[in-house]
Amino acid sequence: MRSPLHHIETVMGVVAAGTMPVLDGRAETLIHRSWFRCFNDYGLDPRSTHRTQIESPVSLRERRARREPYLQVARSGMEQLYRHVAELDYTLLLADADGVTVDAIGRPSSDSPLAAGLVLGANWSELVAGTNGIGTCLAERRTLTCHREDHYYTGNLGLSCTATPLFDPHGELMGVLDVSAVTSPEARESQHLARHLTSLYGRMIEDASFMQHFGDRHILRLSQGSALVDVHAELMLAFDNDGLIVGANTGARRRLQLVESAGLAAGLVGNSLTAIFRNRLGDIWKFARGQQGSDLSVFDTWNGQRYHAAIVVPRTLATVGTARTPVTITQTIVHSDGDTLQTLAGDDARMRQLLDQSRRLASKPVNLLIQGETGTGKEVLAKAIHESSQRADKPFVAVNCAAIPESLIESELFGYMPGTFTGARSRGMTGLIARSSGGTLFLDEIGDMPLHLQTRLLRVLSEHEVLPLGAERPLAIDLHVIAASHRDLRQLVESGAFREDLYYRLCGATLRLSPLRERQDKAYLIERLLREEAASLDVQLQIEAEVLDRLVCYDWPGNIRQLRQVLRFMLSIADERGVRLEHLPEEIGVPVTPVVAPIGLSAPLSAPVTAAMKAEAILPQEGQRLLDALRRNRWNISYVARDLDLCRATIYRRMRRYGIVPPTHLH
Ligand SMILES: Nc1ncnc2c1ncn2[C@@H]1O[C@H](COP(=O)(O)OP(=O)(O)OP(=O)(O)O)[C@@H](O)[C@H]1O
Predict the structure, then answer these.
(1) Does one domain contain both 114 and 181?
(2) pLDDT at 258
(3) Can you give the pLDDT at residue 30?
(4) Which residues form the Sigma-54 factor interaction domain (predicted)?
């Protein structure tokens, strides 16, 4: 293999002869590849002097503000790493995805001119600085050492830089952790330890940021060595109440590949844990609730690789009880303090009447239909009714009919016998209808159920038995249905999109939830949600009276879901002086004044948020557009991404931002 030095000589020779031909041939190492890029694509002349480009303080401040939570996590990791390398005269740099350094620790003791670039705000992208640790690591997306003569510009030849890429909790490249020295031994091997430590701390920073980001989710931690799984999990998967994967750390993305099968989303996110592991979801939940001993092994579906597992429960749950306390998932969503139904409304005559009616109907053998705009709390009400009923100790099974792909809805609802399908689903499955037996089946967005399944559902409702796919004999079931839709089911019946006989079966009584703008108890709801959100974010903040007035006067097109998001947002960005008008998102009526923090390594790391971020963070029309697209595409994230011309990670990020949750199937 040719050495990079050889490559430099080749290029320099050609350049010295006064020609600039296109370098050809296959790049043999990543350093060669970088040289090709710098020479051919960017037209950089390695003989010219590289002058360090430093960002202006304003632009650097904005860069840092955009990455504030991540900077805090990275800073702790860097401080720990620095303790290992301080005596070796290394400087630690943290660069963002553009290659600009946004944090730095240590300064070379020598006053070599090389030290000029190892500072805050320096631009180390390949385009600006040629082949170097940070820029080349960003381009290659892997850990590397750019040792002395590997550097493109002669002015940087003495540097030795080891860099590792940092991916955000959605798998997008967010920056680079770099360890640089201005003096180092000739031999590249001298950087082995630096490389190992940089990579180790890079993963620790990513994982800490992952845990922080998905703190309100269950996180499955996996390791091939059981003793280490609690302290060092190589793989982490965040999952929601339906067992759907919502996040995967770098280790999991690298190690877990998916079995190709119809109905599985590409990549880990969006798939069920049961698509990845042979274990039953119920066993994983039992383990999470401490009902299944202290050890769990999971086995991947393709070659049976065994992993030791630990589960971290969501922060909100952890405050209710420990992982070993049996807490049902339902309890995480409906905040019950006695009578759950009672807490859903304050002093609003229509809502109080609706809740009284709900309480009276709760244990009666009538199916209920809940109508209301999106985000008005249809699912919350359905759960509260279930909890107030005599069926409370039996399962509450929620199915979002708009969310399950049409090809899967039949098998999900009715179940199937072993051998009906090949592959991961060969073991058979009890359908959601049968699982709800004795409890409540909540059919959300019932208006989106395909007609042929409406017919099957009607049969189940009239005969009280269900026939799984491939089964010869039906199973008897004790079925109670609460259905919901934001669309007017009567109109769907009139247009022929919904079966009239099913409509009458379902609506033993119709409960109509008021939109938030029409409710007289907004102040009560705001106060209740504020308390819940403050507890879940672990903050105690005062809120200005004028802010409350604005919240009460706003008309909330996204209803209670939007209210919750706005409150969470304001509590997240407010400082210790409390929530003030400037923390309100733009559409609630106040022009946003950018809140910026002073820059510098010792600058306070709390809450600097730019106007652009605020405007982007809360935008109900955008949220509504997204929700419409999700429904239109039956919650297939890949289709939605194509529909809206966005990447899948952005869809997931926006779903989280607007509190849009994928379908609930079963807990
Ligand atoms: N009465 C309430 N008290 C507190 N939070 C509520 C209440 N009603 C709804 N929420 C919150 O609003 C959000 C949306 O609730 P939910 O999913 O029940 O609405 P939905 O009407 O079923 O929405 P969609 O039509 O989009 O499915 C959730 O975050 C929920 O916690």
Answers:
(1) yes
(2) 55
(3) 86
(4) 344-572
